[in-house]
Give the backbone structure.
Amino acid sequence: MAANFPPPGAADCHVHVIGPKTQFPLAKTRTYTPMDAPTAHLAAMLKRLGLDRVVLVQPSFYGTDNACMLDCMAALPGSRGVAVLPAEVPGSALDDLHKRGVRGLRVNIATGGTASIEQMRDGIAAAAKLCARNGWHVQIFVPSSTLAPLGATLRALPVDTVVDHFGLIAPGEAPDTLVALLESGKVWVKISGAYRIAADPADPRIDPLARRLVATNPERAVWGSDWPHTPRHDLRKPGESEEMPFQNIDTRGLLDLVPRWLGDDALAKRVLVTNPERLYDF
């Protein structure tokens, strides 16, 4: 690991901000109720880790109401956002979001887990149509088993696609489909949320997966902490108003995995600085 790690300009490309819920109430239809993780807590985490840039991602429990995320972005000058929107949005509203720092739209399938492949295709295509206006990207959170049937759709989109959290490919699972998509140049991957694919984010079996995905297309990979580490899917209680605690994850430890995974300071800088600059227009 380089002495000056993380390098200047490093970005956390996947965080969420939550609440305060008295000001930004959650969607009535949601799969769980998280604790608050307000802007001040996010800013403190970034400072503690030495990260200069951040990308906020709209979480499922806010639906298409991006107010909380946009409020945080206004408080963190230069930050970027990935929003969630309905299929039909006026061009003027898209332009306003662009001015406020939005650079992508998220399609979240993995959290709900009920959509058919055809519904996924339709949702991704609708988001891509909105993204095309301002050169944004589509960000997808999908089970690894859906990458193959979605492959042709992703290659044909008018914009790039960013695949969340290693494509949810478990250590030891063949990443061939995601590798092929990365080779196409149309798809990016976030080497983020390692604790979503293994009980221990430091599991050494993740190392060859991360290394292969980044080596396949070094210009199409970024990193994210997935802070504040929302509750595990198998413990969530749909419709429950009771707050669930965040997972006890060492965020600094997640960042320190990057040089271990990649084994090259120049490649780590590309993933943490150069690639985010291009993808998010920092």
Notes: The two ends are 25 Å apart (CA to CA). The domain at 11-280 is CATH 3.20.20.140 (TIM Barrel). The longest helix spans residues 117-132.
